[in-house]
Amino acid sequence: TRPVAPTRLEHMFAPSSTVVLGIDPGLTRCGYAALAPRAGGLIDAISMGVLSSPKEDSLPRRLALLQSDLEALIEEVKPTAIAVEQVFFQNNVRTAMSVGQASGLVLALAYKLGIEVVQYTPSQVKSSVAGSGTANKLQVQKMVQRRLGLSVLPTPADAADAAAVALCHLAVSPLANSVKRATSGVKL
Fold it and tell me: Which residues are catalytic?
């Protein structure tokens, strides 16, 4: 198997007990971004990039390569949560199937490893990061760049999308956790 070679962002980060691994699932190109919040509402990008598998390989081999790369990435960044962009309607059935297979692999792996895993729709991600559920890719990239204090637009787009998913989770999870705590033990 191939070792994961994440892109290191040239930016120091303070250790955090929270690391969110955002995933933009795909079999050919699976975007990822590991983000850690720190004091003052700032967020550090630990690692961003794309995991890929050769199109000419068989589906089982491609899934096995993706699983191996994801396991190595998880071992390296040690996420406390994994946020995955939810498979949404796509015109290309073949693409939708491969995205669904990659997404299922991530969900199962996170569950198996005991890591909190959540899914967000593309419109939830765009709304959380760019303020509009209909934001285009460039708007999302620019907001990810601004929120992470990056000197250049994050590329490729799959990595920027994964960072947006992780940013969405960092924005949404405090409220979701408060609601869970408030309603746990409440009988309806």
Answer: 24, 85, 158
Sign of CA dihedral 95, 113, 4, 10: positive
Strands 20-24 and 29-37: antiparallel
Are 157 and 138 in contact by the 8 Å Cβ rule? The answer is no
Q: Is the previous residue joined to 25 through a cis bond, with omega within 30 degrees of 0? A: no
- The arrangement of strands across the sheet holding 20-24 comes to 7-8, 43-52, 29-37, 20-24, 81-85, 116-120
Task: Tally the C-alpha atoms within 13 A of residue 30's C-alpha that lie toward its C-beta.
Answer: 31
How far, in Å, CA of 132 to CA of 108, rounded?
30
Query: What does residue 112 show for φ and ψ, rounded to 5 degrees?
Result: -60, -35
Torsion 90-93-97-102 (CA) sign: negative
User: 82-95: per-residue pLDDT in tens?
Assistant: 999 997 766 677 77
- Residues 59 and 6: their CA atoms lie apart, in Å, by 23
For range 73-82, the mean pLDDT: 96
pTM value? 0.84
Place of tokens 């598998």: 53
Q: What is the pLDDT of residue 104?
A: 94
pLDDT tens across 120-129, in order?
999 999 998 9
Q: How far apart are CA 34 and CA 25, in angstroms?
A: 14
